[in-house]
Records
---
Amino acid sequence: MKIGIVCYPTFGGSGVVATELGKALAKKGHQVHFITYSQPTRLDFFNENLFYHEVGIRSYPLFVYPPYELALASKMVNVVQYEKLDLLHVHYAIPHASAAYMAKQILKTQGIDIPVVTTLHGTDITLVGKDPSYAPVVTFSINESDGITAVSEDLRKDTYQHFDIKKNIAVIPNFIDLERFKKQKKDHFKTAICPNGEKLIVHTSNFRKVKRVEDVVRIFSKIRKQIPSKLLLVGDGPERMNIESLCRELQICDDLRMLGKLDAVEEVLSVADLFLMPSEKESFGLAALEAMACEVPVVASNAGGLPELVQDGISGFVSPIGNVKQMTEKALFILQEENLPQFKANALQRAQEFDVANILPMYEDIYKKVKAEQDLLTSETR
Ligand code: GMT
């Protein structure tokens, strides 16, 4: 098939999932066209089936806010027409689903019927989307999509709860490339960070408020009083300054390193003993899945879809949001020498269920279904 993928090109989870999906589809022989405002971060290799179309945004002194959605819709029209796409798959509802609706209507006037699949990723529903400033457009454009998917049962439930959605939402969980995310031999790295055999704890995120990075630091501060350990923070974002202040206040700066945005996060995960994800909201928790694929157990909050990923007491633990005390106890339990190997093995076993090879066919099935329905409709109306 010829598929147009629309996503945010940045480090965020939705862009990562969209890009990895496109790469996997291309490897399977589909032709994939990315349509976005800059080269997706993970679109980092050549494949003859992968194409990238940049959305150019023309500014004008009149525009306080350049109309990205219009430029995106125009680009979609252009790419569908000239590349003869079979369908558009948009990731993150705002503004991609409404831009796709507009493109679809424009194309219809030219005799082209293009089905649209919308994948909901989380904050497009749970945070930004349900805000009254966007909700009517989000509701409308989800309902107008030919196929709708959500990355967890919890997000599916939330979507029905917050919006008046008339259509079926299929749950297709996030997935992982086990070829890339696997435990690598990086002993020299472990020795450099943990010279005295300390346990290594890792957190990766975009340091937004919803990630509760402060909880990560507080949990670590309590762990290190019981077990010699180090903390690596990967990523960057608005909370960075607060985190730095908290580390100083707790006097733990010597045992903590902030690595910033790192491409090869799997190298850090390869030497980690525990991953912390105490988020306030998390529709799925892709970063936790990446850790588990590298044999790292997870202590997480019970937010959103996290309990669907982390099996409590098996591949890690889930605790109530903000319960730093309980998360610390669970972390200390996992880090015991007699418990750690089993938790690591279980984490990997769980991650293997989300192998891209298992999840990709679910997307292909949706594509086939919406395309067949569109073809039928087209033949009936002509
Ligand atoms: O977590 C973020 O802030 C990034 C966000 C995004 O939209 O890019 O991630 C969301 O989508 C990911 C991929 O489906 C999920 O794994 C994350 O759990 C989800 N984040 C939230 O729901 C907060």
---
Amino acid sequence: VHVFNLDALTYAGSLENLKELPSPERHTFINGSILDQEFLNGLFQKHQIDTVVHFAAESHVDRSILGPGQFVQTNIVGTFTLLEAARKFWIQENNFQPSQTRFHHISTDEVFGSLAPGEPAWTEETSYAPNSPYAASKAASDHLVRSYGHTYGLPYTITNCSNNYGPYQFPEKLIPLIILNAIEEKPLPVYGDGQQVRDWLHVDDHCSAIHLVLTKGAAGTTFNIGGENQPANMTIVETICDILDEQKPRANGAAHRELIQFVKDRPGHDRRYAMDAGKIRRELGWHPRHNLTDGLLNTVDWYLAHPEWVLAIRKQLEYQAWLAKNYDTREKTA
Ligand code: DAU
């Protein structure tokens, strides 16, 4: 397999992430946008693309609240444009047999909305009820993909996954943000009461699930992926603090927990997510290999061991501007 990695290199993309690839000879980086139809059509033709794994998205909920327009563009129009390129090259021009092609769409558990305490985890049959502009844009893109399968016979699969964590994650998401703020002895912002629940999955386990669905999942199906690790946000933040107390004690000897700062909640904040990953376990034999305790420890170690990666991200003016926009004006509540 040769991988053509198309990336627009917007704020969260970085060539720093490609420096340690295991087989660089099987990888080609292409700088470009999924919004450019002619460019995409040319790529399919030039590289005879037979499989698409569509990760490209605006993915941060807070950003979608402050600026939803980009989410509509990238997540909805971008997915439509990519689907059109695949339809043209695979179906209209008939360059491959359907069994030789696959459009795999990466989606999220947020399309299902929010769970009350005690409600059962989401299955593939649960109705969509997205709450944030981000979640709504992903739900729309899922519907587009499904409709291309139903209407044009485009061979597709969709995976809806829970919160990822692990190396190389852009430090706007909870876990890397808390790790880096704690290392720099900055306040650790916890939204609301910190009792919201997410279903944490190590990125390697997400990737192994995607690989299984691509190679063994039937076209026209969707799979839920989840880590079945569901502590409250506050527990995650405290665990990171305790790990850092061991791995990198503060200069003044105080506990990292003292840096925790409760701040005003995210508008429309979903309370609880939980995925039922029974289908992918039963049908494809997938199971996550990382538990959250080891996964968090390894993740903290990775950020401590990669100061050059952190520095490159930190230097981005856009990132500094985002931190100021989202956090400096956010009211402190305790
Ligand atoms: O569930 C899958 C989704 O998980 C993905 O589809 C999204 O792309 C991804 O961003 C993530 O969404 P969340 O909103 O759950 O992730 P985030 O890391 O932004 O926040 C996790 C929880 O931590 C959430 O309850 C909000 C809270 N939080 C987040 C930040 C950034 C804080 O308390 N403080 C913070 O500074």
